[in-house]
Amino acid sequence: VYKDGIWHLYYQWNPYGSKWQNLSWGHSSSKDLVTWEHHPVAIEPNGLGYVFSGSSVLDPDNTAGFGKDAIISLYTSAAASQIQSLAHSKDNGMTFEIYPGNPVITLESEARDPNMFWNAATGEWNLLLAHALDHEMLIFRSPDLKNWTLNSAFGKGLGAQDGVWECPDLFELTVEGSGEKKWMLICNINPGGPFGGSAAQYFIGDFDGKTFTPDKDADGNVPTKWMDFGKDHYATVSWSDAPDNRRTVIGWMSNWQYAAEVPTMQFRSANTLPREMGLFKASDGQIYVSTVPSPEVDMLRDRLVSRQSKLSVGKNPRKISLPADNDGICEILLDIDSRKGAPVSVMLSNDEGDYVDMVYNPSEGTLTFDRRKSGVTDFSQDFPAVTVAPTFSDDDSTLKLRIFVDRSSIEVFEADGKFAMTNLVFPTVPYNRISFSADGGRADIRNLRIFSIKAVND
Asked: Are 246 and 208 in contact (CB under 8 A)?
């Protein structure tokens, strides 16, 4: 939730260890989405159970009776059953009082991760609740955030159905280049992702305050769409009350296939960069989500360590050094012009033989990401993988990329946001070079810029 210039991030947190137990709401806050301050635990388990995921909103009209502009939170209390509990904060989200009338929603079946928002069109609150094992989202309404009425259910038999449905979100966006407004329903699932394990799917459609109606494709089917084409992007939800009508999201950067076994010390996982959501219409007539780094991310840039206006590449790789500062963390921007349609390789590597190979194939309209030799991969049989993103490109020979290389992750964005790809990597030493090659033809790398990234939150 965003309030008075502060972005508040609440997250599942075990204060006593790095495994899944003792779940509470941890709390961090930021003025710029880049530098974060950690705070004491916001909500702790009680007799109703662990504190699972949920959402927070501002209540400017005091509909809940806790005061104007109070922060209201709903979360799942999980013990023998899963029920929905309410808490509120009168000190800008630093501490919370648990509502004595909890639970506010109970069901006989497993349901979790309440996500609520004010619906200005209907003048009431809406809430989505993941009916996890039934593979559907339940839609509620309320006048006061305490008393909720079930309106409808969405999702039976639609989209990816192989895993439990979790962490929903629902919001309205404008389609780029038009005044058309559509609703986007996020549905995180585990397992059942396109490359195994957990992932975030979404649906585009219309919402009247009671029922979500999904768009269909030319064949009359509801298509399955993915927010990210890597293996490590899950539980993505948006900030409520973000400024300037922004729809800013953040995800958990891991995969339940191996989240508890990743070779990190001493942290279990990280979040993605903050991202801005939009919608665009592709050549197939379908509306898809666009994903770009939040503008605040530009603040991370330090020195411009390399700039090339044009590199002509062929079968023999052209190599450029990456910055050594701050363990080689960097941002890379480049345009790929494949000329005659030959596949183009963008490889990150180090002197120990670890490498990540990203290949743009213009004839197939794809970007692949191969991390099978990226470094430490033997902690899980599910970790070595190749992920594939459609480029949604109107130009079958050009691709513009923005790549963020961190110590143990790589986030790849198409420059206009047409796709994102998030993958963990664990190189034995930092990658220290980037190389370009074209197999079967010539290609140009244009507008290459490499920035070192400042150290923050050390």
From this structure: no
The answer on 169 and 67 residing in a single domain is yes
Q: Which of 449, 372, 363, 366 is nearest to 403 (CA)?
A: 449
Same domain, 229 and 283: yes
Given phi > 0 = left and psi -120 to 50 = alpha, else beta, which region is 235? left
The parent domain of residue 45 ranges over 2-293
Q: Does residue 385 lie in a domain region?
A: yes
Residues contacting residue 374 through CB under 8 Å, at least 6 positions apart: 354, 355, 356, 425, 426, 427
Residue 62, in any domain of the structure: yes
Q: Which of 274, 293, 312 is the C-terminal boundary of a domain?
A: 293
Number of domains in the chain: 2
Residues of the chain below pLDDT 50 = none
Residues 81, 179, single domain; the answer is yes
According to DSSP, the residues that pair with 434 across neighbouring strands are 320, 348
Say how far apart CA 289 and CA 228 lie, in whole Å: 10
Q: What is the pLDDT, as a whole number, of residue 457?
A: 62
Nearest CA to 181 out of 161, 145, 208, 152 is that of 208
Stated pTM of the model? 0.96
Across 107-238, the runs of DSSP E, i.e. the strands, are 112-119, 124-131, 136-142, 149-154, 164-174, 181-190, 199-207, 212-214, 225-226, 234-238
pLDDT at 441: 86
Q: By the 8 A CB rule, do 424 and 254 touch?
A: yes
Q: Which of 456, 431, 453 is nearest to 346 (CA)?
A: 431
Question: Which two structure tokens, joined as six digits, stand for 433?
Answer: 């070079």
Whether residues 370 and 412 fall in one domain: yes
Q: Are residues 325 and 247 in the same domain?
A: no
Could you tell me if 45 and 135 lie in one domain?
yes
Q: What is the mean pLDDT of the chain?
A: 95
Q: Is the separation of the CB atoms in 242 and 248 below 8 Å?
A: yes
